[in-house]
Design brief:
GO molecular function: caspase binding; death receptor binding
CATH class of the largest domain: Mainly Alpha
Distance between the termini: 25 Å
GO biological process, one term: extrinsic apoptotic signaling pathway
Shape: elongated
Largest sheet: none
Domain Death: 97-179
Domain DED: 3-81
CATH superfamily of the largest domain: Death Domain, Fas
Pfam families: Death, DED
Structural class: mainly alpha
C-alpha cells in the first residue's frame, strides 16, 4: 500500500462531516462548485486535489494549511510524521482485515480506558491520548487503539481485541467485531 494514500485515508477517517465541509469551503478557489458539491468525505476531496496536482507525496503544504485552518493539529502531526518518514510502513501494521477500529470507536464510549487497560496499554499512553483528544470521545478511542496497535506491532490481533472487549463486559461490541 502506498504510504501517501494510507496517510490520506487516515486523515479522512478522522474528519467529521463539518470539517470536510470547512475544507471544501477553503478549496473554493481551486475546485469548481459543481465538483465541490459532490464531495461527501475527505478521500473524495483529496482525490480531486491529487488530480489537480495540488497535493502529492512531495507537495504537502496545502494539505497542512487545510488542517491548520480547521484546527486539527493531531492530523497535521500525521502529515509532519509522513514528511519525516516516521509513519510506519504497512508491513509493520496488522492486516487490513484486522482493523475493526470503527466498530469499537462507535460503540465503546466511556469504557475506553477500561478496554485499553485490559489490552495492557501503559497508563502513560492513556494519559497522552486523553490530553490530546480531551473533547472528542470517539477520537480518544480511535487514537488509543492506534497507540495499542503501534505498541503491539504485528502482535496486535483482532482476537486480543475481542477477548479484551469480553473482559470488559462489552460482549455485544465483541460480537460485532467478530462479524
Amino acid at each position: 500500500v502506498d504510504r501517501f494514500l494510507s496517510l490520506l485515508l487516515s486523515i479522512s477517517s478522522g474528519l467529521s462531516p463539518a470539517e470536510v465541509n470547512a475544507m471544501k469551503f477553503l478549496c473554493r478557489d481551486i475546485i469548481k462548485k459543481g465538483k465541490r458539491e459532490t464531495v461527501q468525505v475527505g478521500l473524495e476531496l483529496f482525490s480531486i486535489l491529487m488530480e489537480q496536482q495540488v497535493i502529492a507525496p512531495d507537495r504537502l503544504g496545502f494539505l497542512k494549511e487545510l488542517l491548520r485552518h480547521i484546527s486539527r493539529g493531531d492530523l497535521l502531526a500525521l502529515v509532519e510524521q509522513f514528511e519525516q518518514g516516521e509513519l510506519q510502513a504497512p508491513e509493520d501494521q496488522p492486516d487490513e482485515r484486522e482493523k475493526p477500529f470503527d466498530v469499537i470507536r462507535a460503540n465503546v464510549g466511556r469504557d475506553w480506558k477500561k478496554l485499553m487497560r485490559e489490552l495492557g496499554l501503559p497508563e502513560v499512553k492513556l494519559d497522552k491520548v486523553e490530553a490530546a483528544y480531551r473533547y472528542d470521545l470517539e477520537e480518544m478511542v480511535f487514537q488509543a487503539l492506534r497507540e495499542w496497535q503501534k505498541w503491539k506491532g504485528k502482535d496486535a490481533k483482532v482476537a486480543d481485541l475481542i477477548k479484551a472487549l469480553q473482559g470488559c463486559n462489552l460482549r455485544l461490541v465483541a460480537d460485532w467485531v467478530e462479524e
